[in-house]
Amino acid sequence: MGDPERVTERATRMLAPNPGPMTLDGTNTWVLREPGFDAGVVVDPGPLLEEHLAAVAALGPVALIVLTHGHPDHAEGAVRFRELTGAPITARDPALCVAADPLQPDSVSHVASVAWLTVVTPGHSSDSVCFVLPGDRALLTGDTVLGRGTTVVAHPDGRLADYLDSLKRLRDLADDDIDVLLPGHGPTLDDPIAVLDYYLAHRRERLEQVRDALAAGAADAKDVVRSVYADVDQVLWPAAERSVRAQLDYLDEMRQR
């Protein structure tokens, strides 16, 4: 389990001890606290790991628990963390909220003197959101952008058309308002424009590879994965297949327009 790491003036990272092929070094739990204030906001308590949750709770009073999305590696520990801290839970999905209203798109929140802008960014999942910290010119990205590699479009809940729109929205924000990305997994990224340009280019490249695989005779998503992801560790192929299914759906949508 990681020690607290101050990353920006308002954001401290606690690394959950759940490393793996999909979680990289583990889930980044973000503790947001305005300088000079005791209470803070915790983004993504992470998995249900008591030692991690207790260590985050020990950093100080928590006024609100916020989820970037509902996948277990980010949200599974939220209810237990509420028991430890007494804080309400908010998310885009009303089913995840406890004693708090759901997050609203393009809304500015002020809790315990922490201010952030909620940006709705579906694609990885239907309920994914990112958060702009204006005072730090930082963006908490959840799984929409990772600190290493690229993320999965988690079909069928995730949709590639939504994800591309979300990346473009974040790219526009990065032009004027963002200097650093604070991801849900992996290291922070200090060149947001280059990262988001890469993510968009990567998705375009993958779509072309999928088209080529289909033209070469691939019969289904598994065939496409074997062709397009031949150089990727096979432990990641099930996740790649979910992205491929999202890509196939996207291509079908484009043909029907």
- Low-pLDDT stretches are none
Helix count? 7
Distance between the termini: 49 Å
% residues in beta strands: 15-25%
From the alpha carbons, calculate the radius of gyration and give it in angstroms: 18 Å
Find the count of extended strands (DSSP E, 2+ residues): 11
The class by helix and strand makeup works out as alpha/beta
Structure write-up:
- This protein has one domain (5-191): Ribonuclease Z/Hydroxyacylglutathione hydrolase-like (Metallo-beta-lactamase, Chain A).
- Helix 4 packs antiparallel against helix 5 (192-215) and helix 5 (192-215) crosses helix 7.
- Strands 1-2-3-4-5-6 form a 6-stranded mixed sheet, with helices on one face. The chain has a 5-stranded mixed sheet with strand order 7-8-9-10-11.
- The chain is globular, with a radius of gyration of 18 Å.
- It has 7 helices and 11 strands.
- By secondary structure, it is α/β, with parallel strands linked by helices.
